Amino acid sequence: MAFVPALLAAGGSALFVAAGDRLSKRWARPGVAGDGRPEFAASPAANFPPADQLVVVFGASGGSGLALVEVALQKGYRVRGFVRSVDKMQDELQDLADHPRLELVQGDLCDLEAVQQAVAGALAVLCAAGPRPETAPGPLTEAVPAMVAACRQHGVHRLIVQTCALAAVPGERWGWLTAGRLARAVVRWQIGSDVLDDGERVME
After folding, report:
1. What is the pLDDT of residue 97?
2. Binned average pLDDT, 10 residues per bin, the chain of 204 residues
3. Tally of CB atoms within 10 A around 19
4. Is the C or the N end of the chain the one with fewer CB within 10 Å?
5. CA-CA distance, 166 to 25, in Å (whole number)?
6. Rounded Cα–Cα distance for residues 15 and 9 (Å)
7. Alpha carbon of 6 to those of 13, 15, 16, 18: distances in Å?
8. CA angle 118, 121, 122 (to 5 degrees)
9. Is the whole model's pTM more than 0.85, yes or no?
10. What distance lies between CA 63 and its chain's CA centroid?
């Protein structure tokens, strides 16, 4: 009967975790990045035809960045792609690499001056960049504030930053035993990825 105390202890632990999980899910709530979503006045460029409007895409050679570039060109916008390697971007784009409305800028997100210069003249700035490899120190913590400053300097009203879907925004509370929390643990501790931490620092 020596196993009875162990069984009771295991049962008690399971009940504690189940009760805690239930309460944590009851108290879970979404958060809001920064001060919420501000209201902006309409951009002066909003009345121009797409061919006169420039969209800047950071991280343009990644999967999401390539999709943004292709869609923007299809919609008739001029596109400036900020990439680590122009050669890689050209290989990925194939026929689109010679598109007359596409401009490729080779640079590093850690070069904050280059980041700010790339924003000049833009209607909108889209960031789909991230650390490569994922275990590398995240670049967005420093780069996004530079993008924000450049947008303010050049009068750009639209800045969209893609981050990891598992990143929690300030004030967000998750349940103990949820698929999202378990996935976060795998990404952060098993894979050793810096994507979560980088994304969450950006939203702070």
Report:
1. 85
2. 57 56 52 45 53 89 90 93 90 86 92 92 90 65 89 91 72 65 70 69 69
3. 11
4. N
5. 17
6. 10
7. 10, 14, 15, 18
8. 80
9. no
10. 13
State both tokens at 130.
């991230």
Q: Output the CA torsion 53→54→55→60 (10° steps).
A: 140
Give the integer Cα–Cα distance in Å for 59 and 26. 38
Asked whether the beta carbons of 127 and 161 are under 8 A apart, the reply is: yes
- Spatial distance between the Cα atoms of 118 and 112, rounded to a whole number of angstroms: 10
DSSP-assigned letters across all residues of 86-122: HHHHHHHHGGGGG-TTEEEEE--TT-HHHHHHHHTT-
Other CB atoms within 10 Å distance of the CB of residue 99 = 14
